[in-house]
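Sample pair:
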Amino acid sequence: YVFYRKGVGDMALGGLGQSSQAVNWFDRRQDPDFIFARSYDAYTARVDNMPFYNSKTPITNLTYLESGQKRYREEHFELLHAQNISPSTSANVSYKARSTMGRYDWQRTKNHALSLGFAHTGKRYSIHAGYMRNTVDTRENGGVVGEWAIADTVFEMPSGVPMRLASAEANNLYRNTSFFVKQSIGIPLQRMTEHDFSMADLSAVYIGHLFEYNSWSKVYTDKYATYTDERYERNENGTFKSHTDTYYKEWLLNPETTRDSLAERIITNRLFVQAQPWDRNGVVGTIDGGIGLDLHTYSQFALTDYLTGKYERVKKTAW
């Protein structure tokens, strides 16, 4: 399990690819952007976990793991290839697919993460670029109909526990596309010689630029269905009385199906300057400064969109 590789682990739903949250609060990503998919951070490819390699020979790694009975099967597939084009230039591709059928009804989850990376680290100029594509496809069951469904020992298999979302069509689909380029050029304040492998030990000034595009979307679909709580309450005789209900109390537009969508897009441009008075290991390693511009675009389905036929978007700018 990916989420057990760091720190004390995560609070998880239990299956490979399902949502989780780090037990250690400081291990949780504090970035407020698109919090709906944050519980899948252990599986998504992002700028902060993009891998880069520097190898004398090409590397290819192919991994496939499978566990559990067929009805509860978990699968992990991973493909990695990385190689250097030159001693200072490299490229890599990584694809990971993790999935589970789930222990309870309608818990199937599929995670796909693709990342493409390119890097060049010269003496004065360096560039890192990456493309990431994430897809999370998960069914929702709404939780058990009552505590008795878990506490009662009559249910010997988790697949027999009744859930509140009685339709197998309840589904959340997350999609993410991200691209970034970070580059910098160094201006040495001392004369460089052929014996200087890098500028790390010299006085220098670095000028850099970061561009990032990040787009997330979530679509929830479901069909109208009822569930029955066999032990909703006791009557005057002490026997249980059942109750039939629906997960959602109101279906506003369509009495049979629902589709709710929201999306977020962020475009980031940042220019930074880094002064290195002596060397990076000195008393004053670096002095950093910069300016940035973030363009945020949010959109979610609203009743006015249905009436006017126009999908409204909210745009915000942050410096």
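The chain has a mean pLDDT of 88.
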